[in-house]
Amino acid sequence: MKRKMLIPLLGLTVAGLTLSFIPIKMPFIKKSFEASEKQYTYLAKEADKLRNFPRTINKKGELVVTSEWDWTGGFFPGSLWYIYNKTGDEGIKNEAIKWTEALEKAKNLDQHHDIGFVMYCSYGNAIKYLKDPKKVEAYKDIIIHAANTALKRYNPKVGLIKSWNKKKSWDGKTTWQYPVIIDNMLNLEMLCYVSDITGDPKFRNVAISHATKTMQNHFRPDHSTYHVVDYDENGKAIHRQTNQGYADNSTWARGQAWAIYGFTMMYKETKKKEFLETAKAAASFYMNHKNLPKDKIPYWDFNAQQEGYKSDLDFAYLKLDYIPRDASAAAVVASALVDLSTFTTGKESRSYLNFAKSTLKTLSGPAYFADYGTNGGFLLKHSVGSIPHNSEIDVPLAYADYYYLEGLTRLSELK
């Protein structure tokens, strides 16, 4: 019996000749985008009724929406753009334009650090996928405005963009004066992009400064991450704690995901080798962790309820008889690893790509991908917002869908 030959996603040099191989076809990607097109058409109609941006569902299964000032506002239009790019659906495109333009006021969002999430996931994707020069130029102006707004939270003496305003930690005695969270790495791509289109290096320089100090202070010796690092007025790290993880010394799964993604992206933008090595080390911690389930969808925290990890909170009141998974963390990691595979070679590159592909296939299966008209109209089930805040536990989340669709897009476009 003849065996089918698997054609690798690699090039091979033989006797001075470079052979280009054809990518392996992955039919689950096409199927997933077709299902996403139908589900998001449904979600857009539901969002229209409430006239605001879909974020999650409540305990009754009803759609929860939020305003343009929330950090999650850009994910819904961003997801619509990914779907439009792969399906060409004009209805989806019109919804993407409408919901993107509904975010314009958020170009002035300076109450927290998340303007990059809000504006680049929406307007950034619109610029990439919309073939309308007039609109694209207008969108670029809005992105430039947003980048200047982001810099309002940057203190050159500290060298970082401040994530939140003054805030108390869970220990009840520590007040963070200049808190920086690992999530903040995801806002840096917008700054790099604006330096590209304006020719002004100040935006990229801020991004590099922020990433460099995050690299120095957010990682433990085993390459796991702290969620929150608080700085004094001179830029010295004075507290390392958590806000959404289990304990100060535990590893919050989505925090580790943000680190993998953020440093992969910063290497792509700067080609600084130290950012690549940081991304690889963070990925190794995640991919090889003994507590990562076989299906590669992590628990919300790698160390939840484990000996040696003491939380400042008593989670007993939640009455959970299981440790929730976080599909959003899995989606972020999968998208990042597709990119990371392109910056590495050989066995290392294949390990990242295979991990990403396996994760995306799992998320595309019935255990995590919702049936049409269910799950509030979102794609993925089983994500976690913040268990310490008793918020969004085992529900769909707009950003889980966004990074899932981004991961599928990146995987489908590999050459």
Instruction: Show unreliable segments.
Output: 1-23
Work out the helicity level: 40-55%
Any idea what the shape is?
Answer: globular
- Tally of individual helices: 12
Overall strand count: 13
> What do the pLDDT scores average to?
94
What separation lies between the terminal Cα atoms? 31 Å
The topology string of helices and strands comes to EEHEEHHHHEEEEEHHEEHHHHEEH
Category by helix and strand content: mainly alpha
Gyration radius (Cα, Å) is 21 Å
List the helices and strands and how they pair.
Elements lengths: L10 E4 L2 E4 L6 H24 L2 E5 L5 E4 L8 H13 L2 H12 L13 H15 L3 H18 L3 E2 L4 E2 L5 E2 L6 E2 L2 E3 L6 H11 L3 H16 L10 E4 L5 E5 L11 H18 L2 H15 L39 H16 L3 H18 L19 E4 L4 E5 L2 H15 L3
Antiparallel strand pairs: 1-2, 3-4, 5-6, 7-8, 9-10, 10-11, 12-13
Keywords: Hydrolase
InterPro entries: 6-hairpin_glycosidase_sf, 6hp_glycosidase-like_sf, Glyco_hydro_88, UG_Glycosaminoglycan_Hydrolase
Protein name: Glycoside hydrolase family 88 protein
